[in-house]
## 1
Amino acid sequence: MNNLFKALNDPTRRQILDLLRGGDMNAGEIAERFDMTKPSISHHLDLLRQSGLVEATKQGQFINYTLNTTVLDELLAWLMSFQKTDAPSPETSSSQKAS
């Protein structure tokens, strides 16, 4: 889970995830969208891969990256587990105060 939060903490990595929502891309196509070196983009892609947010598939000389939303589904389920289910609704709370 720490790798996931580390990956999501960086705006460049979040932009890469946004790009991949439109479909699979190879590293070169992703790098073209940023004003930084290819090794820097590779580093970001590696962290995204380690976190499980993207999957990498080698096809010939290219590595294609695919968004993996399963990890985000698991994160969302974990976060939702902290939501109180027995909390009174706002209407109930305000009517109790009026009594």
## 2
Amino acid sequence: MNLHATRTAFGIGSWKDILGISVASVARDDAIRLLQRMLTEREFTRITFLNAHNANIACAEAEFAAALNDFLVLPDGIGVDLAARLLYGEPFPDNLNGTDFVPAFLQASQEPLTVGLIGTTRHNAEAAAQELAALAGQHQFVVVHDGFFSDEEQPEILERLRELRPDILLVAMGVPRQELWIDRNLTAEHCTLPIAVGALLDFLSGAVPRAPLWMRRLRLEWVFRLLLEPGRLWRRYIVGNPLFLLRIVRQKRSGRV
């Protein structure tokens, strides 16, 4: 079942166009079952998550936007929820941010899987693998490489992936590098589900703290991250969030939904 067939199977009403990107409008448990089916059928599928920041980058970088057409895109964060309310009159069924969804998916999948990790620093990737093994011990977690490799090292990394051929490959290189790397380099001979996970491995390793649970429940984790790293993230949130909503208003006025 290719990505087009997957979209057809969900039905047109199960997809929402956010700034030209088709985002799956699917409940958490249904998304877990879909990914499990893909693994069972060994259906190679690229997976990523769309939030306001990623959407802004896609508006500015045509190659990234084009690459997302070949990904199963899941909704992440309050920004895309607000966009869905404005454009379609209803939010997405669930917030499927990768930081929470990926560990939940691994815990829910009882069939033993091989999960590769690539990205961040070697130390953080190793620590994340240990944390994931504690959360979902039925699976094997293998650190393939850190995220700081040269073009000369890439053939060796891809060959290792061919030999290992993990069921899932968690790629943590930041947006848009991780999606572009997946799009340019990975095929079914390397893994079944490559998932672009952003800062997930840094969060799991403890290198980057997460917001308190009450802030996450209120959908305010972005505020916590901004307070934690204002110098790096102010443009993403203070400038990026209003820009994203302005673009959504323009999409609404254009009638492109």
## 3
Amino acid sequence: MCPRGEEPVMQVDFGRTSSDYVRHRAGFPEAFFERLDREGLLRSGLRAVDLGTGTGTVARGLAQRGAVVTGLDVSADMLDAARGLASGMGLGIDFRQAPAENTGLPSQAFELVVAGQCWHWFDRPAAAREAARLLVPGGRLVIAHFDWLPLPGNVVEATERLIERFNPGAPAPFVSLSQSSGVYPPWFRDAAEAGFTQLTSFSFDVSVSYSPRAWRGRIRASAKVGASMPASAVSGFDAALADLLAGSFPADSLDIPHRVFALLATRP
């Protein structure tokens, strides 16, 4: 059953698109980790859990700053990719297959829990309670997103319209693509109901440059394309997107606006 009477989410398996995910999905920018540092959330030896780690982009960012990181995901394919990327960077991250709602990790054993670009896929109340269980008193929860922004006439808006044409009406877990603003007020309620206090947030915008080929790869690695469409439909969509880019956005480099949003909360 979905929390709060929401509609069921579409059947999504990011493991089906893990190769594109590794190559083309940009992780959180350096400015995100710099902001966490300024907020006093990062230090050497910090014990951290990265929920829904995917290919480990957040986990690696934390480990590079000295944290001792455990990364969790339900997809074995994504975890295999995460281990390879971390190993290639010489980072020792403990990746485990487990859901965010029932991690199997010890209580009050961590000082930071992060959920990057994944909170909407969870049973949110259960995940918030599990995060509270994992954290020591005074520990911090960070729920963060890094979303592209569909603006009138830009390539994101045109791409989203094409996605809707190929995969119409697929229920999204939080808000429809065309309505997304990159800010998530409901997450405050999730944290508060789980007992978290001192809720604050920040957001800022950045631009990410993609070649047309890389943008196609990034879109194939999204929930409503490679993670949910049949392979034959993905191929047809990709060809249509290539035609769209060549005809309407022919530049060699596409500047894609993104918004970083983060909710910060404290376990009493």
## 4
Amino acid sequence: MGIARRNSDLGSLKSGWGQALEAVVRHPVDLFTLLPLGELAIAGARLGDLARLEPYLREGRSLLNRLGDPPLWSVPLHWSGLHAAILTDEPAVAEDRVAALLAAAGHSRYAAVVAAAAESWVEVLRGAVDPVRVEAAARGLHDTGLWWDGARLAGQAAIRTADRRAMTTLLECARALQGRPAGVDGGHRPTAGEGTAQVTDAIAGPAQPGLSDREYEVAELVLAGLTYREIGDRLFISAKTVEHHVARMRNRLNCANRAELLALLRTVVADRASNTAGQPWPRRSAR
């Protein structure tokens, strides 16, 4: 389920969800189930079915509370809870998870890294992108083994900033953390259709940060493996129009080739909620 989520493979997530829930039901909640429960919470949020997992998450949180909320076990669950809250568009819940992570930041380097990244992530969702801070947080995640999360944070920040230079810097950071340096093709040979897209890139104008709602729709279907014709049939547009959308996305995200575009789209599309993603979250209310 974790691999499917990170690859934006919604089909595999859906097909595996029933088996995952069955496994949760069969196994009692203990400390060793908290990591898979956290991963499944994000998957459930992605599928819009988190409620079915909530009783087990409550049981896990209750267990931690009885043990005094030990950071070694609670920090990963709070980190997963943050991303589930992002997917379900619950800013208040996300703030609670950030607060819990900040409270545990002194426990270990891992706790400090994810606390800083959580705080930066929520600020990005509010539209406040500090590229230096974001890159430091993203690289911190990478260095502690959370390389996919680091790349995703940088990519999410890149599409939310209006600063062209910051966008370029953050996209380069996302590429580096994915293990795909700029300019490395990875052996991909462009098809005839992609050749046309390269020509379209040249006339599309200067790249702009962010993707339109239609581009997000096209991106999700591209990541699902559909052809341009199949995407066009699904969205009631021509295959040529789909090709132009893909070319424009390449230009907007400053990607050198299709392989690089697909890698970045996995980063920026994976956690986009269906209705409100891309809109700035409200500022934290005064308490």
